[in-house]
Design a protein that fits this description.
The protein is an alpha/beta fold. It has 15 helices and 14 strands. Helix 7 packs parallel to helix 9 and helix 14 packs parallel to helix 15. The relative contact order is 0.13. The structure holds 5-hydroxymethyl-3,4-dihydroxypiperidine.
Length: about 450
């Protein structure tokens, strides 16, 4: 399918997963720095101390991104790098780093898609309760306004949070991610504070005169019942409520879903007057991260092998039609602003042999999911862009460096970057997209105005 000329194609990363340099140039520690020090929580016992060494290699990494022919680079700012304690004084060296990064993108013709919070909360705020404490909401708004003042005139978009469900559920309920808390009441309070801080940050950035479009990124999936039984259907409805409606309903002014509030009972969040109005601040765009569908079974976790699909190294089914289904459902149930797929990709076994990585599985994954986006677009969903997760192999949180999502291979011993076959494919795909927008005229080629 030919996508519209103004459809944005990109690649994505996040600060903690690639930067390294945890205590360089005045950076403070984040909850992930300290979480990694706990025994047994990271599969390979690793941490983010070096990662892809991007803090030092950012210029050549930007050259690499530009060489792929993408329009945009989605990156995140490390809050503790720019404001080490989460409040109090700002770190000018940290701010300068991101200003150079943004300017470096603009010099290379790349649109900067900035995310404020991709999970690396300053450790000092965690000592005060982290996202479960209402004070963190106000510290986040200050942080957002500080970044808006420095970079809001030059970035293409500002995303408040990446995947609040993950931060709340995996960070505070199951405890498998930082800060490693297992408490459902704290998790639901954290989710409310994340949403509230998003809404208040949008209001504050707009009041500041920030011209950049503002939005949020959610990890979403269609939740399907394992069987037609009433129990599985009810389980799927509840899981859909906790994953999708808990976040999307309040963002679009519908409040929290009553069935989930009933389910949480005494663990439901404390909500103050005006909170729900703030959360419903108008979105300029919605970011959707999609990897697979979810299958709900009342009998316990569903065995992914039952789906009969290819399964990635993360144990996730390859299920591209779920992306179309998800986007059509969002379009049906909510008045959507422009929608970006802000993450999509897969971890596959990627041996580097004689300087090449033949990752046909990843190329197929990307092509099928881009088709799925095209199908949603053709059916009226206001799709605005697509970003591959990830540019580089990087620190995959609790999986450490064992799982590789990059279209560019990273040798962690030498930091050498090698384009995988999927990167070559993506570059060729984008070239063909551009060529389809050039129409011949009697006087020579010119760029077509066709397209949304
Ligand atoms: O690596 C993560 C990313 O940080 C957030 N979304 C999912 C990716 C793959 O697990």
């Amino acid at each position: 399918m030919d996508f519209p000329k103004n459809f944005v194609w990109g690649v994505a990363t996040s600060a903690f997963q690639i930067e390294g340099a945890p205590e360089v140039d005045g950076k403070g520690l984040s909850i992930w720095d300290t979480f990694c020090q706990r025994a047994g929580v990271i599969a390979d016992g690793s941490n983010g101390d070096v990662a892809c060494d991007h803090y030092r290699r950012w210029e050549s990494d930007l050259d690499l991104i530009a060489s792929l022919g993408v329009d945009a680079y989605r990156f995140s700012v490390s809050w503790p790098r720019v404001r080490p304690g989460g409040s109090g004084s700002w770190n000018s060296k940290g701010l300068d780093f991101y200003e150079r990064l943004v300017d470096g993108m603009l010099q290379r013709g790349l649109k900067p898609y900035l995310t404020l919070n991709h999970w690396d909360l300053p450790e000092e705020l965690q000592a005060n309760g982290g996202w479960a404490h209402r004070d963190t909401v106000h510290r986040f708004v200050e942080y957002a306004v500080g970044i808006g003042a420095r970079m809001g005139d030059r970035v293409a978009t500002i995303t408040t949070h990446n995947e609040p469900w993950v931060m709340a559920m995996l960070g505070y309920e199951s405890g498998i991610f930082a800060p490693g808390i297992k408490d459902r009441a704290q998790a639901s309070q954290a989710s409310h504070h994340l949403l509230l801080s998003h809404g208040l940050a949008l209001q504050a950035l707009r009041a500041q005169g920030c011209r950049s479009p503002l939005g949020i990124v959610l990890n979403l999936a269609p939740v399907q019942p394992a069987t037609d039984s009433a129990e599985d259907v009810a389980q799927a409805r509840l899981e859909d409520g906790r994953l999708l409606r808990w976040y999307v309903d309040p963002l679009f002014g519908k409040g929290y879903p009553q069935d989930v509030l009933d389910h949480l009972g005494a663990d439901a969040p404390r909500i103050e007057a005006g909170d729900m109005e703030a959360i419903a601040a108008p979105l300029d765009y919605l970011g959707v991260n999609y990897y697979s569908r979810s299958v709900a079974s009342a009998a316990g976790p569903w065995d992914v092998k039952q789906g009969g699909r290819e399964i990635t190294e993360m144990g996730w089914e390859v299920y591209p039609e779920g992306l179309t289904e998800l986007l059509l459902r969002l379009h049906r149930d909510y008045p959507l602003p422009p929608v970006y797929i802000t993450e999509n990709g897969g971890a596959f076994p990627d041996p580097l042999t004689d300087g090449v990585v033949h990752d046909a599985d990843r190329t197929r994954y990307l092509a099928q999911h881009i088709d799925a986006v095209g199908a949603a677009l053709a059916q009226g969903v206001p799709m605005a862009g697509y970003m591959v997760w990830s540019l580089l192999d990087n620190f995959e949180w609790a999986s450490g460096y064992v799982k590789r999502f990059g279209i560019v291979h990273v040798d962690y011993d030498t930091q050498r970057r090698t384009l995988k076959d999927s990167a070559h494919w993506y570059r060729g795909f984008l070239k063909r997209q551009r060529a389809s927008h050039v129409v011949p005229t009697p006087t020579g080629p010119q760029t077509a105005l066709a397209g949304a």
